Protein backbone atom coordinates (compact mmCIF):
# COMPACT_ATOMS: atom_id res chain seq x y z
CA UNK A 1 0.00 0.00 0.00
CA UNK A 2 1.04 3.60 -0.62
CA UNK A 3 -0.04 5.67 2.35
CA UNK A 4 -0.67 9.41 2.21
CA UNK A 5 -1.35 9.98 5.89
CA UNK A 6 1.84 11.65 7.07
CA UNK A 7 1.61 15.40 6.69
CA UNK A 8 4.90 17.23 6.09
CA UNK A 9 5.70 20.94 6.03
CA UNK A 10 8.43 21.08 3.43
CA UNK A 11 11.58 23.10 4.08
CA UNK A 12 12.29 24.92 0.81
CA UNK A 13 15.61 23.11 0.29
CA UNK A 14 13.86 19.72 0.35
CA UNK A 15 11.06 20.40 -2.11
CA UNK A 16 11.05 17.64 -4.75
CA UNK A 17 11.57 18.57 -8.39
CA UNK A 18 8.40 18.87 -10.46
CA UNK A 19 7.78 16.20 -13.11
CA UNK A 20 4.66 17.72 -14.68
CA UNK A 21 2.67 20.95 -14.84
CA UNK A 22 0.54 20.11 -11.77
CA UNK A 23 3.63 19.56 -9.70
CA UNK A 24 5.02 22.87 -11.00
CA UNK A 25 2.01 24.61 -9.44
CA UNK A 26 2.54 22.71 -6.20
CA UNK A 27 6.26 23.50 -6.08
CA UNK A 28 5.43 27.16 -6.67
CA UNK A 29 2.94 27.13 -3.78
CA UNK A 30 5.46 25.41 -1.51
CA UNK A 31 8.17 27.90 -2.41
CA UNK A 32 5.78 30.74 -1.62
CA UNK A 33 4.96 29.21 1.76
CA UNK A 34 1.29 28.83 0.86
CA UNK A 35 -0.73 26.88 3.43
CA UNK A 36 2.45 26.63 5.57
CA UNK A 37 3.93 24.05 3.22
CA UNK A 38 0.96 21.72 3.55
CA UNK A 39 -0.29 19.57 0.62
CA UNK A 40 -3.71 17.92 0.78
CA UNK A 41 -5.44 16.35 -2.25
CA UNK A 42 -8.62 14.33 -2.60
CA UNK A 43 -10.36 11.84 -4.88
CA UNK A 44 -14.13 12.55 -5.07
CA UNK A 45 -16.03 9.82 -6.97
CA UNK A 46 -19.80 9.62 -7.26
CA UNK A 47 -21.11 6.36 -5.72
CA UNK A 48 -23.41 5.66 -8.66
CA UNK A 49 -21.34 3.08 -10.52
CA UNK A 50 -17.99 1.30 -10.64
CA UNK A 51 -14.67 3.04 -11.17
CA UNK A 52 -13.09 2.72 -14.62
CA UNK A 53 -9.66 3.19 -16.23
CA UNK A 54 -10.18 6.96 -16.40
CA UNK A 55 -10.73 7.05 -12.64
CA UNK A 56 -7.51 5.07 -12.21
CA UNK A 57 -5.63 7.96 -13.78
CA UNK A 58 -7.17 10.44 -11.35
CA UNK A 59 -6.49 8.15 -8.39
CA UNK A 60 -2.85 7.70 -9.33
CA UNK A 61 -2.33 11.45 -9.87
CA UNK A 62 -3.91 12.45 -6.56
CA UNK A 63 -2.30 9.77 -4.40
CA UNK A 64 1.13 9.86 -6.03
CA UNK A 65 1.31 13.65 -5.67
CA UNK A 66 0.23 13.34 -2.05
CA UNK A 67 2.93 10.73 -1.48
CA UNK A 68 5.67 12.64 -3.30
CA UNK A 69 5.11 15.88 -1.40
CA UNK A 70 4.52 14.30 1.99
CA UNK A 71 0.86 15.21 2.00
CA UNK A 72 -2.52 13.63 2.55
CA UNK A 73 -5.20 12.38 0.19
CA UNK A 74 -8.85 12.13 1.18
CA UNK A 75 -11.44 9.80 -0.27
CA UNK A 76 -14.72 11.68 -0.45
CA UNK A 77 -17.91 10.30 -1.92
CA UNK A 78 -19.79 12.94 -3.89
CA UNK A 79 -23.17 11.61 -2.77
CA UNK A 80 -25.49 14.50 -3.57
CA UNK A 81 -27.93 12.65 -5.85
CA UNK A 82 -30.03 10.14 -3.87
CA UNK A 83 -31.67 8.89 -7.06
CA UNK A 84 -28.62 7.06 -8.39
CA UNK A 85 -26.40 6.32 -5.38
CA UNK A 86 -26.11 3.02 -3.55
CA UNK A 87 -24.01 1.81 -0.64
CA UNK A 88 -22.61 -1.17 -2.56
CA UNK A 89 -21.05 1.26 -5.03
CA UNK A 90 -19.23 2.88 -2.09
CA UNK A 91 -17.87 -0.51 -1.03
CA UNK A 92 -16.63 -1.31 -4.52
CA UNK A 93 -14.96 2.10 -4.88
CA UNK A 94 -13.10 1.58 -1.60
CA UNK A 95 -12.05 -1.92 -2.66
CA UNK A 96 -10.80 -0.67 -6.05
CA UNK A 97 -8.63 2.03 -4.50
CA UNK A 98 -7.13 -0.38 -1.96
CA UNK A 99 -6.51 -2.89 -4.73
CA UNK A 100 -4.63 -0.24 -6.70
CA UNK A 101 -2.34 0.03 -3.69
CA UNK A 102 -3.46 3.26 -2.03
CA UNK A 103 -4.78 4.14 1.42
CA UNK A 104 -6.56 7.42 2.01
CA UNK A 105 -6.23 9.73 4.99
CA UNK A 106 -8.55 8.80 7.85
CA UNK A 107 -12.02 7.43 7.21
CA UNK A 108 -13.93 7.74 3.97
CA UNK A 109 -15.79 11.05 4.02
CA UNK A 110 -18.95 12.06 2.20
CA UNK A 111 -20.43 15.24 0.80
CA UNK A 112 -23.49 14.22 2.80
CA UNK A 113 -21.38 14.64 5.96
CA UNK A 114 -21.48 18.35 5.18
CA UNK A 115 -25.15 18.80 4.29
CA UNK A 116 -25.69 20.94 7.39
CA UNK A 117 -22.65 23.11 6.69
CA UNK A 118 -23.51 23.42 3.01
CA UNK A 119 -27.02 24.50 3.91
CA UNK A 120 -25.57 27.14 6.24
CA UNK A 121 -23.29 28.39 3.45
CA UNK A 122 -26.28 28.65 1.12
CA UNK A 123 -28.09 30.77 3.72
CA UNK A 124 -24.97 32.93 3.93
CA UNK A 125 -25.16 33.56 0.17
CA UNK A 126 -28.82 34.50 0.52
CA UNK A 127 -28.06 36.87 3.40
CA UNK A 128 -25.38 38.55 1.31
CA UNK A 129 -27.85 39.04 -1.53
CA UNK A 130 -25.93 36.58 -3.72
CA UNK A 131 -28.55 33.82 -4.08
CA UNK A 132 -32.30 33.66 -4.68
CA UNK A 133 -35.10 31.11 -4.80
CA UNK A 134 -36.42 30.67 -8.33
CA UNK A 135 -39.82 29.24 -9.29
CA UNK A 136 -38.88 28.94 -12.97
CA UNK A 137 -39.10 25.55 -14.64
CA UNK A 138 -36.05 23.69 -15.95
CA UNK A 139 -36.98 24.71 -19.48
CA UNK A 140 -37.44 28.36 -18.51
CA UNK A 141 -34.08 28.47 -16.75
CA UNK A 142 -32.40 26.98 -19.82
CA UNK A 143 -34.04 29.60 -22.03
CA UNK A 144 -32.99 32.40 -19.67
CA UNK A 145 -29.34 31.34 -20.01
CA UNK A 146 -29.04 32.56 -23.59
CA UNK A 147 -26.07 31.23 -25.53
CA UNK A 148 -22.44 32.01 -26.25
CA UNK A 149 -23.38 34.83 -28.64
CA UNK A 150 -26.38 36.16 -26.75
CA UNK A 151 -26.61 37.32 -23.12
CA UNK A 152 -29.17 35.70 -20.87
CA UNK A 153 -32.21 37.29 -19.28
CA UNK A 154 -32.92 37.70 -15.60
CA UNK A 155 -35.37 35.40 -13.92
CA UNK A 156 -38.61 37.19 -12.92
CA UNK A 157 -37.88 35.97 -9.36
CA UNK A 158 -34.32 37.34 -9.24
CA UNK A 159 -35.25 40.47 -7.27
CA UNK A 160 -36.96 38.76 -4.38
CA UNK A 161 -35.92 40.23 -1.05
CA UNK A 162 -33.34 38.59 1.17
CA UNK A 163 -36.03 37.89 3.78
CA UNK A 164 -38.34 36.23 1.23
CA UNK A 165 -35.50 34.13 -0.21
CA UNK A 166 -34.45 32.96 3.24
CA UNK A 167 -38.04 32.09 4.15
CA UNK A 168 -38.61 30.17 0.92
CA UNK A 169 -35.30 28.29 1.20
CA UNK A 170 -36.04 27.28 4.77
CA UNK A 171 -39.46 26.06 3.67
CA UNK A 172 -37.82 24.13 0.81
CA UNK A 173 -35.74 22.35 3.43
CA UNK A 174 -38.85 21.73 5.52
CA UNK A 175 -40.43 19.85 2.64
CA UNK A 176 -43.27 22.23 1.82
CA UNK A 177 -42.70 22.23 -1.93
CA UNK A 178 -42.84 19.60 -4.65
CA UNK A 179 -39.87 18.36 -6.64
CA UNK A 180 -38.96 20.76 -9.42
CA UNK A 181 -41.16 23.57 -8.13
CA UNK A 182 -38.29 25.70 -6.83
CA UNK A 183 -34.49 25.87 -6.93
CA UNK A 184 -31.86 28.03 -5.29
CA UNK A 185 -29.71 29.96 -7.79
CA UNK A 186 -26.60 32.06 -7.33
CA UNK A 187 -27.02 35.70 -8.33
CA UNK A 188 -24.00 36.46 -10.51
CA UNK A 189 -24.34 37.83 -14.06
CA UNK A 190 -26.71 36.73 -16.80
CA UNK A 191 -24.39 38.26 -19.39
CA UNK A 192 -21.23 36.52 -18.17
CA UNK A 193 -19.14 35.05 -21.02
CA UNK A 194 -18.93 31.78 -19.08
CA UNK A 195 -22.46 30.38 -19.27
CA UNK A 196 -21.89 28.46 -16.04
CA UNK A 197 -21.83 31.78 -14.18
CA UNK A 198 -25.20 32.89 -15.49
CA UNK A 199 -27.03 32.47 -12.18
CA UNK A 200 -26.27 28.73 -11.77
CA UNK A 201 -28.57 26.43 -9.82
CA UNK A 202 -27.10 25.51 -6.43
CA UNK A 203 -29.89 23.48 -4.78
CA UNK A 204 -32.86 21.45 -6.01
CA UNK A 205 -35.73 19.63 -4.31
CA UNK A 206 -35.68 15.82 -4.30
CA UNK A 207 -38.08 13.96 -2.00
CA UNK A 208 -36.07 10.75 -2.13
CA UNK A 209 -34.39 8.62 0.50
CA UNK A 210 -30.63 9.11 0.64
CA UNK A 211 -28.40 6.07 1.12
CA UNK A 212 -26.82 7.62 4.24
CA UNK A 213 -29.04 10.43 5.53
CA UNK A 214 -32.34 8.69 4.89
CA UNK A 215 -35.21 11.19 4.77
CA UNK A 216 -33.47 13.92 6.80
CA UNK A 217 -33.13 16.07 3.69
CA UNK A 218 -35.33 16.80 0.73
CA UNK A 219 -33.07 19.48 -0.80
CA UNK A 220 -29.70 18.54 -2.24
CA UNK A 221 -26.79 20.68 -3.46
CA UNK A 222 -25.64 20.37 -7.05
CA UNK A 223 -22.07 19.37 -7.85
CA UNK A 224 -20.79 22.91 -8.35
CA UNK A 225 -21.90 23.93 -4.89
CA UNK A 226 -21.11 20.74 -2.97
CA UNK A 227 -17.74 20.06 -4.55
CA UNK A 228 -15.84 23.28 -3.98
CA UNK A 229 -17.32 23.91 -0.56
CA UNK A 230 -16.50 20.35 0.56
CA UNK A 231 -12.92 20.98 -0.59
CA UNK A 232 -12.82 24.09 1.56
CA UNK A 233 -14.37 22.36 4.58
CA UNK A 234 -11.66 19.70 4.37
CA UNK A 235 -9.00 22.36 3.68
CA UNK A 236 -7.95 20.65 0.46
CA UNK A 237 -4.99 22.63 -0.87
CA UNK A 238 -5.09 21.35 -4.46
CA UNK A 239 -8.33 20.14 -6.05
CA UNK A 240 -7.16 18.09 -9.03
CA UNK A 241 -9.84 17.23 -11.56
CA UNK A 242 -10.24 16.34 -15.22
CA UNK A 243 -10.24 18.89 -18.01
CA UNK A 244 -14.02 18.82 -18.45
CA UNK A 245 -14.28 20.89 -15.25
CA UNK A 246 -12.13 23.76 -16.55
CA UNK A 247 -15.14 26.02 -17.11
CA UNK A 248 -16.41 25.17 -13.63
CA UNK A 249 -13.29 26.69 -12.08
CA UNK A 250 -14.64 30.24 -12.45
CA UNK A 251 -17.68 29.35 -10.37
CA UNK A 252 -15.47 27.38 -7.96
CA UNK A 253 -13.40 30.51 -7.32
CA UNK A 254 -16.44 32.85 -7.23
CA UNK A 255 -18.01 30.81 -4.44
CA UNK A 256 -14.77 30.79 -2.45
CA UNK A 257 -14.58 34.59 -2.64
CA UNK A 258 -18.29 35.14 -2.03
CA UNK A 259 -18.37 32.87 1.01
CA UNK A 260 -14.90 33.89 2.27
CA UNK A 261 -13.89 30.31 2.90
CA UNK A 262 -10.66 28.31 2.64
CA UNK A 263 -9.15 28.96 -0.82
CA UNK A 264 -8.65 25.53 -2.35
CA UNK A 265 -6.95 25.66 -5.75
CA UNK A 266 -8.54 23.79 -8.66
CA UNK A 267 -6.16 22.44 -11.31
CA UNK A 268 -7.35 20.49 -14.33
CA UNK A 269 -5.58 17.69 -16.17
CA UNK A 270 -6.56 15.79 -19.30
CA UNK A 271 -8.65 12.71 -18.75
CA UNK A 272 -7.29 9.47 -20.14
CA UNK A 273 -9.13 7.48 -22.78
CA UNK A 274 -8.00 4.05 -23.93
CA UNK A 275 -8.78 2.39 -27.25
CA UNK A 276 -11.67 -0.10 -27.10
CA UNK A 277 -12.59 0.86 -23.51
CA UNK A 278 -15.62 2.94 -22.50
CA UNK A 279 -15.11 5.54 -19.76
CA UNK A 280 -18.69 6.76 -19.50
CA UNK A 281 -20.60 5.41 -16.51
CA UNK A 282 -23.88 6.00 -18.29
CA UNK A 283 -22.77 3.82 -21.19
CA UNK A 284 -21.19 1.22 -18.93
CA UNK A 285 -24.49 1.02 -17.09
CA UNK A 286 -26.30 0.48 -20.40
CA UNK A 287 -24.00 -2.44 -21.24
CA UNK A 288 -24.87 -4.03 -17.89
CA UNK A 289 -28.60 -3.35 -17.99
CA UNK A 290 -29.02 -4.63 -21.54
CA UNK A 291 -27.12 -7.83 -20.79
CA UNK A 292 -24.30 -7.22 -23.26
CA UNK A 293 -21.93 -8.10 -20.41
CA UNK A 294 -22.46 -10.16 -17.27
CA UNK A 295 -22.04 -7.23 -14.87
CA UNK A 296 -19.91 -4.24 -13.88
CA UNK A 297 -16.99 -6.61 -13.27
CA UNK A 298 -17.17 -8.39 -16.61
CA UNK A 299 -13.54 -8.80 -17.80
CA UNK A 300 -14.40 -7.06 -21.08
CA UNK A 301 -15.39 -3.86 -19.29
CA UNK A 302 -13.12 -0.88 -18.73
CA UNK A 303 -13.94 -0.93 -15.01
CA UNK A 304 -11.25 -1.55 -12.42
CA UNK A 305 -13.33 -4.45 -11.10
CA UNK A 306 -13.48 -5.92 -14.60
CA UNK A 307 -9.75 -5.53 -15.17
CA UNK A 308 -9.00 -7.02 -11.75
CA UNK A 309 -11.21 -10.02 -12.57
CA UNK A 310 -9.48 -10.31 -15.92
CA UNK A 311 -6.17 -10.56 -14.09
CA UNK A 312 -4.53 -7.19 -14.69
CA UNK A 313 -2.06 -6.53 -11.86
CA UNK A 314 -2.55 -3.30 -9.91
CA UNK A 315 1.14 -2.54 -10.45
CA UNK A 316 0.63 -2.67 -14.22
CA UNK A 317 -2.25 -0.18 -14.07
CA UNK A 318 -0.23 2.18 -11.89
CA UNK A 319 2.68 1.93 -14.32
CA UNK A 320 0.39 2.56 -17.28
CA UNK A 321 -1.15 5.64 -15.67
CA UNK A 322 2.24 7.08 -14.71
CA UNK A 323 3.94 6.32 -18.02
CA UNK A 324 1.18 7.97 -20.05
CA UNK A 325 1.99 11.19 -18.22
CA UNK A 326 0.00 14.19 -16.99
CA UNK A 327 -1.11 16.42 -19.85
CA UNK A 328 -3.33 19.42 -20.54
CA UNK A 329 -5.00 17.92 -23.61
CA UNK A 330 -7.33 14.95 -23.79
CA UNK A 331 -5.50 11.98 -25.17
CA UNK A 332 -6.22 8.54 -26.54
CA UNK A 333 -3.96 5.75 -25.35
CA UNK A 334 -3.30 2.52 -27.19
CA UNK A 335 -4.89 -0.61 -25.75
CA UNK A 336 -1.78 -2.50 -26.82
CA UNK A 337 0.35 -0.30 -24.56
CA UNK A 338 -1.92 -1.10 -21.62
CA UNK A 339 -1.45 -4.81 -22.24
CA UNK A 340 2.28 -4.26 -22.73
CA UNK A 341 2.40 -2.89 -19.19
CA UNK A 342 0.43 -5.92 -18.01
CA UNK A 343 2.86 -8.36 -19.67
CA UNK A 344 5.88 -6.60 -18.17
CA UNK A 345 4.62 -7.35 -14.69
CA UNK A 346 3.23 -10.81 -15.35
CA UNK A 347 6.30 -12.09 -17.17
CA UNK A 348 8.39 -11.95 -14.01
CA UNK A 349 5.69 -12.57 -11.41
CA UNK A 350 3.68 -15.42 -12.94
CA UNK A 351 4.20 -19.14 -12.56
CA UNK A 352 3.90 -21.33 -15.64
CA UNK A 353 1.42 -24.17 -16.16
CA UNK A 354 0.42 -26.38 -19.05
CA UNK A 355 -3.08 -26.61 -20.47
CA UNK A 356 -4.34 -27.82 -23.83
CA UNK A 357 -7.14 -25.57 -25.09
CA UNK A 358 -8.13 -27.54 -28.21
CA UNK A 359 -7.19 -31.09 -27.27
CA UNK A 360 -6.57 -34.12 -29.43
CA UNK A 361 -5.21 -37.37 -28.01
CA UNK A 362 -1.64 -38.48 -28.74
CA UNK A 363 -0.69 -42.10 -27.99
CA UNK A 364 2.96 -43.04 -27.42
CA UNK A 365 2.83 -46.56 -28.78
CA UNK A 366 6.11 -47.84 -27.26
CA UNK A 367 5.48 -46.45 -23.78
CA UNK A 368 4.34 -49.02 -21.19
CA UNK A 369 0.58 -49.18 -20.75
CA UNK A 370 -0.72 -48.25 -17.30
CA UNK A 371 2.57 -46.64 -16.24
CA UNK A 372 2.80 -43.08 -14.91
CA UNK A 373 6.05 -41.17 -14.63
CA UNK A 374 6.72 -37.95 -12.72
CA UNK A 375 8.76 -35.10 -14.16
CA UNK A 376 9.93 -31.91 -12.48
CA UNK A 377 9.66 -28.51 -14.16
CA UNK A 378 10.42 -24.91 -13.18
CA UNK A 379 7.52 -22.80 -11.98
CA UNK A 380 9.03 -19.67 -13.53
CA UNK A 381 12.28 -19.70 -15.54
CA UNK A 382 12.48 -15.91 -15.05
CA UNK A 383 12.58 -16.35 -11.26
CA UNK A 384 14.30 -19.54 -9.97
CA UNK A 385 13.30 -18.64 -6.41
CA UNK A 386 9.73 -19.64 -7.25
CA UNK A 387 10.82 -23.27 -7.22
CA UNK A 388 9.51 -26.22 -9.21
CA UNK A 389 6.57 -28.60 -9.41
CA UNK A 390 5.88 -32.17 -10.45
CA UNK A 391 3.90 -33.15 -13.52
CA UNK A 392 2.67 -36.67 -14.33
CA UNK A 393 3.40 -38.28 -17.68
CA UNK A 394 1.68 -41.29 -19.27
CA UNK A 395 1.27 -43.25 -22.49
CA UNK A 396 -1.68 -41.12 -23.57
CA UNK A 397 -1.44 -37.34 -23.53
CA UNK A 398 -3.44 -34.37 -24.78
CA UNK A 399 -1.81 -32.01 -27.27
CA UNK A 400 -3.08 -28.98 -29.15
CA UNK A 401 -4.94 -29.88 -32.33
CA UNK A 402 -3.24 -27.00 -34.18
CA UNK A 403 0.18 -28.43 -33.26
CA UNK A 404 -0.39 -31.29 -35.72
CA UNK A 405 -0.39 -31.16 -39.51
CA UNK A 406 -1.01 -34.08 -41.78
CA UNK A 407 1.40 -32.57 -44.28
CA UNK A 408 3.81 -29.76 -43.27
CA UNK A 409 3.69 -26.85 -45.69
CA UNK A 410 7.35 -25.86 -45.36
CA UNK A 411 10.69 -27.00 -43.98
CA UNK A 412 10.50 -24.55 -41.08
CA UNK A 413 7.55 -26.32 -39.51
CA UNK A 414 8.94 -27.92 -36.32
CA UNK A 415 5.84 -29.23 -34.57
CA UNK A 416 3.89 -32.48 -34.96
CA UNK A 417 3.75 -34.07 -38.39
CA UNK A 418 4.48 -37.56 -39.76
CA UNK A 419 8.19 -38.30 -39.49
CA UNK A 420 8.94 -35.28 -37.26
CA UNK A 421 10.81 -35.36 -33.94
CA UNK A 422 9.39 -33.02 -31.29
CA UNK A 423 10.22 -32.51 -27.62
CA UNK A 424 7.45 -32.65 -25.07
CA UNK A 425 8.10 -29.86 -22.56
CA UNK A 426 10.11 -31.18 -19.55
CA UNK A 427 9.65 -34.80 -20.75
CA UNK A 428 10.80 -36.83 -23.77
CA UNK A 429 11.41 -36.38 -27.47
CA UNK A 430 8.81 -38.19 -29.55
CA UNK A 431 8.73 -39.30 -33.18
CA UNK A 432 5.41 -38.89 -34.99
CA UNK A 433 4.39 -42.04 -36.83
CA UNK A 434 0.91 -41.27 -38.11
CA UNK A 435 -2.65 -40.44 -37.17
CA UNK A 436 -6.25 -41.63 -37.20
CA UNK A 437 -9.23 -39.68 -38.48
CA UNK A 438 -13.00 -39.91 -38.77
CA UNK A 439 -15.12 -40.12 -41.88
CA UNK A 440 -15.04 -36.34 -42.27
CA UNK A 441 -11.26 -36.21 -42.23
CA UNK A 442 -10.98 -34.85 -38.70
CA UNK A 443 -7.95 -36.08 -36.77
CA UNK A 444 -9.08 -38.17 -33.80
CA UNK A 445 -5.72 -39.51 -32.61
CA UNK A 446 -2.02 -38.97 -33.24
CA UNK A 447 0.38 -41.91 -32.90
CA UNK A 448 4.02 -41.52 -31.93
CA UNK A 449 6.95 -43.30 -30.31
CA UNK A 450 9.39 -41.93 -27.76
CA UNK A 451 13.13 -42.09 -27.28
CA UNK A 452 13.70 -43.42 -23.73
CA UNK A 453 17.19 -41.86 -23.58
CA UNK A 454 15.82 -38.37 -24.32
CA UNK A 455 14.48 -37.68 -20.83
CA UNK A 456 14.57 -33.95 -20.09
CA UNK A 457 17.54 -33.01 -17.91
CA UNK A 458 19.33 -36.28 -18.69
CA UNK A 459 19.18 -36.56 -22.47
CA UNK A 460 21.73 -39.04 -23.83
CA UNK A 461 19.87 -39.77 -27.08
CA UNK A 462 21.88 -37.41 -29.27
CA UNK A 463 18.64 -36.48 -31.09
CA UNK A 464 18.04 -32.78 -31.69
CA UNK A 465 14.39 -31.79 -31.81
CA UNK A 466 13.86 -28.27 -33.09
CA UNK A 467 10.35 -27.90 -31.71
CA UNK A 468 8.97 -28.08 -28.17
CA UNK A 469 5.27 -28.34 -27.34
CA UNK A 470 3.18 -28.47 -24.18
CA UNK A 471 0.96 -31.40 -23.21
CA UNK A 472 -1.25 -32.86 -20.45
CA UNK A 473 -1.44 -36.49 -19.35
CA UNK A 474 -4.86 -37.91 -20.23
CA UNK A 475 -5.49 -39.87 -17.05
CA UNK A 476 -4.32 -37.04 -14.79
CA UNK A 477 -5.63 -33.99 -16.63
CA UNK A 478 -8.25 -31.63 -15.26
CA UNK A 479 -11.33 -30.54 -17.13
CA UNK A 480 -11.17 -26.74 -17.20
CA UNK A 481 -13.30 -24.00 -18.70
CA UNK A 482 -11.36 -21.31 -20.51
CA UNK A 483 -12.95 -17.97 -21.33
CA UNK A 484 -11.14 -16.44 -24.26
CA UNK A 485 -11.81 -12.70 -24.05
CA UNK A 486 -11.29 -10.28 -26.90
CA UNK A 487 -12.05 -6.57 -27.18
CA UNK A 488 -15.70 -5.74 -26.49
CA UNK A 489 -15.85 -3.32 -29.43
CA UNK A 490 -14.85 -3.69 -33.05
CA UNK A 491 -13.89 -0.01 -33.27
CA UNK A 492 -11.21 1.57 -31.01
CA UNK A 493 -13.34 4.69 -30.42
CA UNK A 494 -16.99 3.57 -30.66
CA UNK A 495 -18.35 6.80 -29.18
CA UNK A 496 -16.75 8.92 -31.91
CA UNK A 497 -19.37 7.93 -34.47
CA UNK A 498 -22.39 9.60 -32.90
CA UNK A 499 -22.17 12.43 -35.45
CA UNK A 500 -22.70 9.77 -38.10
CA UNK A 501 -25.95 8.71 -36.45
CA UNK A 502 -24.41 5.56 -34.98
CA UNK A 503 -24.64 4.39 -31.38
CA UNK A 504 -21.66 2.94 -29.56
CA UNK A 505 -23.68 -0.28 -29.21
CA UNK A 506 -23.49 -0.68 -33.00
CA UNK A 507 -19.84 -1.64 -32.58
CA UNK A 508 -20.23 -4.53 -30.13
CA UNK A 509 -17.86 -7.32 -31.12
CA UNK A 510 -19.89 -10.58 -31.33
CA UNK A 511 -16.65 -12.56 -30.94
CA UNK A 512 -15.59 -10.85 -27.69
CA UNK A 513 -16.03 -14.07 -25.69
CA UNK A 514 -15.45 -17.69 -26.65
CA UNK A 515 -15.74 -20.46 -24.06
CA UNK A 516 -13.50 -23.50 -24.49
CA UNK A 517 -13.53 -26.90 -22.80
CA UNK A 518 -9.87 -27.59 -22.16
CA UNK A 519 -7.51 -29.95 -20.33
CA UNK A 520 -5.09 -28.74 -17.67
CA UNK A 521 -2.27 -30.26 -15.67
CA UNK A 522 -3.22 -31.43 -12.12
CA UNK A 523 -1.37 -28.58 -10.37
CA UNK A 524 -4.05 -26.18 -11.58
CA UNK A 525 -6.35 -27.71 -8.98
CA UNK A 526 -4.28 -25.97 -6.28
CA UNK A 527 -4.95 -22.50 -7.67
CA UNK A 528 -7.59 -20.15 -6.27
CA UNK A 529 -9.72 -17.29 -7.56
CA UNK A 530 -7.58 -14.31 -8.53
CA UNK A 531 -4.39 -16.30 -9.19
CA UNK A 532 -2.74 -15.28 -12.44
CA UNK A 533 -0.22 -17.38 -14.35
CA UNK A 534 1.06 -18.18 -17.80
CA UNK A 535 -0.26 -21.12 -19.75
CA UNK A 536 2.75 -22.14 -21.80
CA UNK A 537 2.58 -20.95 -25.41
CA UNK A 538 -0.98 -19.65 -24.91
CA UNK A 539 -1.04 -16.52 -22.79
CA UNK A 540 -1.63 -15.22 -19.29
CA UNK A 541 -4.74 -16.44 -17.49
CA UNK A 542 -6.50 -15.74 -14.21
CA UNK A 543 -8.64 -18.06 -12.12
CA UNK A 544 -12.19 -16.71 -12.17
CA UNK A 545 -14.42 -16.40 -9.13
CA UNK A 546 -16.85 -18.82 -10.83
CA UNK A 547 -14.40 -21.66 -10.18
CA UNK A 548 -15.51 -24.43 -7.84
CA UNK A 549 -13.89 -27.46 -6.24
CA UNK A 550 -15.10 -29.44 -9.24
CA UNK A 551 -14.21 -27.04 -12.03
CA UNK A 552 -11.43 -24.54 -12.69
CA UNK A 553 -12.54 -21.53 -14.75
CA UNK A 554 -9.83 -19.43 -16.38
CA UNK A 555 -10.08 -15.95 -17.91
CA UNK A 556 -7.67 -14.89 -20.64
CA UNK A 557 -5.77 -11.93 -19.23
CA UNK A 558 -3.66 -11.16 -22.29
CA UNK A 559 -1.69 -12.94 -24.96
CA UNK A 560 2.02 -13.67 -24.84
CA UNK A 561 3.06 -11.39 -27.67
CA UNK A 562 2.78 -7.64 -27.76
CA UNK A 563 1.74 -5.71 -30.85
CA UNK A 564 2.69 -2.40 -29.23
CA UNK A 565 5.39 -0.69 -31.28
CA UNK A 566 6.55 1.73 -28.60
TrEMBL record:
Highest taxon above the source species:
Bacteria
User: Which Pfam families does the record match to this protein?
Assistant: tRNA-synt_1c, tRNA-synt_1c_C, tRNA-synt_1c_C2
Write the record's keywords in alphabetical order, separated by commas: Aminoacyl-tRNA synthetase, ATP-binding, Cytoplasm, Ligase, Nucleotide-binding, Protein biosynthesis
What EC number(s) does its UniProt record assign?
6.1.1.18
For biological process, the GO terms are: glutaminyl-tRNA aminoacylation
Q: Which GO terms describe its cellular component?
A: cytosol
| Sequence ranges assigned to domain tRNA synthetases class I (E and Q) anti-codon binding in this UniProt record | 468-544
Q: Per UniProt, what is one GO molecular function of this protein?
A: ATP binding
Q: Where would I find the Glutamyl/glutaminyl-tRNA synthetase class Ib catalytic domain in this sequence?
A: 39-347
Domain Glutamyl/glutaminyl-tRNA synthetase class Ib anti-codon binding, by residue range, is 351-450
Q: Which NCBIfam families match?
A: glnS, PRK14703.1
As for family, the record states: Belongs to the class-I aminoacyl-tRNA synthetase family.
Name of the protein in its database record: Glutamine--tRNA ligase
